[in-house]
Amino acid sequence: MYAILDIETTGGQFNEEGITEIAIYRFDGHEVTDQFISLVNPEIPIQPFVVKLTGISNAMLRSAPKFHEVAKRIVEITQDAILVAHNAPFDYRILRTEFRRLGYDFQSKTLCTVELAQKLLPEQPSYSLGKLVRSLGIPMADRHRATGDAIATVKLFKLLLDRDSNKEIVREFIRTEVEKGLEPRLLDIVESLPSRTGIYYIHREDGTVTFIGRSRNIRKSVNQHFASDARISKILRSEVFRVTYDDTGSEMIALLKEHEQIRALTPAHNRIPKKRNYQWMLTIQTDEQGFITLGYRRAEKNDPACFLSRHDAHANLVRIAQQYKLCPARCGILEPGAACPDNTPCGACTGAEDAAGYNKRVNEFLLRSVPETDSFIAVGRGRTINERSAVVVENGRYLGYSFFDLNFQINNKNILKNLLIPHQPEGNASAIIRSFLIRNKAIKIIPFE
How far apart are CA 54 and CA 148, in angstroms? Predict the structure, then answer.
């Protein structure tokens, strides 16, 4: 027996989502024998992009039953059944999280139709539910609503069962998630962590740090460590006594601090990072027509290197050209003297765009990513909404970082230096910073005089 389901959620931080709609069809392998469909009041706001995607609004859910009011019915209809869903790990995690909030340990075997389709229908260009059922001629209504997606999954699953005549693959892909569920002490650790950017430390009972990591979502990353079947994850699960963290807000600070802490504490399960050898630099010139051109070359002593290799430099210039809609021929990613390919000529090559318009986009990239001086402040996110972070480089040397919430602090050199937290993760930290700036848009550069 199978319980085929689809869940719509509020969106938001990992393990903090709430259910807004659920549809479950009990299926015996031939036909649907029971069904349960309901909106659910999540008691938290829905993310705006989810409202736009699903059409489910906060107003629609005010009079809907709360999860604890439908929980018994969900247990009844899924009793002694294998949960089937398109991307089953997501739906199962959401369901377990909701039941856990009620103090109930919901457990079930699961089967994912994404994995099944990839095995039984290997020729498909896409395995998203909408594109997959369309390519198979399966009718679908109410996309991104629980009922429509669940009915489509029922029809897809029936087709996949027919394809697997010996039922060997279905048995192979049934997941006994009970065995993978986190034990209570690990769940307590995960739930004590924030869904924020920073670095985290995994400790043994004697306080020894055995692993350090960085993440844009600390809770999610630690949860993945504990849930994974990887060898290192099994070791960490057996050794962990507690997890501490440093909330940085800024990914750049997290990167710098992670390197410094791993080298200082030498955790047993981290590789000690070698000094990164940045050997290539970004070049900026202006051609005869007045267009700013980008490129790369091997850096010499004291040059502002920011790429680890020629391949790294080329890959980043390709990304920059795509991101800022720049001419590939003027970004050093085509052969010298080559023009844009005939099938995709850019405005700069066809004459449809003048140098002033083109250079405006180049300067947008440069202002965000390439400091004009060796002394600058890179301003990014802080640990709270009103706070900002500052990474300070003076005369090409990384001084440290600080957090501030008042403009006069960042504009006063003496005050800013008093706020600095000294930090030296590597001898070439300034190169790490330059490399990070080129790869990330959400940073503001201020000259530091």
Answer: 11
Backbone angles phi, psi at 168, to 5 degrees: -75, -45
As a whole number of angstroms, the distance between CA 383 and CA 377 comes to: 18
Q: What are phi and psi of 221, to 5 degrees?
A: -65, -45
Length of the chain: 449
Residue 103 class from Cβ within 10 Å (0-12 exposed, 13-18 middle, 19+ buried)?
Answer: exposed
Nearest in space to 271 (alpha carbons), one of 224, 202, 211: 211
Query: How many secondary structure helices (H) and strands (E) does the chain include?
Result: 18, 16
Cα separation, 83 vs 272, in Å, equals 43
Do 211 and 197 meet the contact criterion of CB atoms below 8 Å apart? no
Ordered mean pLDDT values, 10 residues apiece, the chain (449 residues): 91 81 90 92 88 87 91 91 89 89 87 86 84 85 85 90 74 61 78 90 92 92 84 89 93 90 88 72 91 91 86 90 86 72 66 85 89 86 88 86 82 80 70 87 80
Distance CA 185, CA 105 (A): 14
Question: How far apart are the C-alpha atoms of 22 and 37, rounded to whole Å?
Answer: 6
Residue 168 amino acid letter: E
Residue from 317, 202, 327, 312 nearest 265 by CA: 202
